[in-house]
Amino acid sequence: MPRTDRSSERRSEFVPILARAFSELGFRRATTAELARRCDVQENILYRLWPDKRAMFIAAIEYVYDLSVAKWEQLLAGDGDASGKSAAERVLDYESEHHGEFGLYRIVFAGLTETDDEQIRDALRRMYGRYQAFVERRVGEHRGGDRDGADIAAWAIIGLGTVTSIARDLGLLDAGDRQRLWQEMGRVLLDEGEK
């Protein structure tokens, strides 16, 4: 009887572990030996699932996006909430409290140091493009369907996430200030198109 191919299942099992390792070590310092150790397997097992370390890193980049959007979609599931807030406002409120709490943004930062690698650069471009499209839709919905300027507001909100991540890592803003930054500036960006 042929063995069942569990490759997809194994990749799903290992990607969160790889993501944590890349967020702590970056791309260059994360050796495949260390990645395998953290996954509690031999290196050859990882090489059966991904062709090389770069592919593992790209899978971690995709995981950052997938995890974020899964959280947001869970937050937005249903017909809304009792507060009467738009989906965009609810995502901003969530991010004001939770943005960066797992440190996975460090994978993106590590990737930005590897943009001379075309595959990593393309993975980052896809990830940022998907984030931008998701946020742009929410901004447009918040503005009653008016998408004028929603694309730029979405990029600015992504930039807000980058700034708060940097402030977190460098100790420039405490949690309360990061939360205020998200809430106050996020609200300005959401409402700018309504004027």
Give a description of the structure:
The protein is an all-alpha fold and 195 residues long. The protein has one domain (7-194): Tetracycline Repressor, domain 2 (Orthogonal Bundle). It is built from nine helices and no strands. Helix 7 (118-142) packs across helix 8 (150-170). The longest helix is centred in the middle third of the chain and has 25 residues, at 118-142. It is globular, with a radius of gyration of 19 Å. The mean pLDDT is 92.
The CATH architecture can be given as Orthogonal Bundle
Count of helical stretches: 9
- Strand residue content: under 5%
CATH domain fold name: Tetracycline Repressor, domain 2
Please count the beta strands (DSSP E, at least 2 residues each): 0
Give me the strand/helix succession.
Answer: HHHHHHHHH
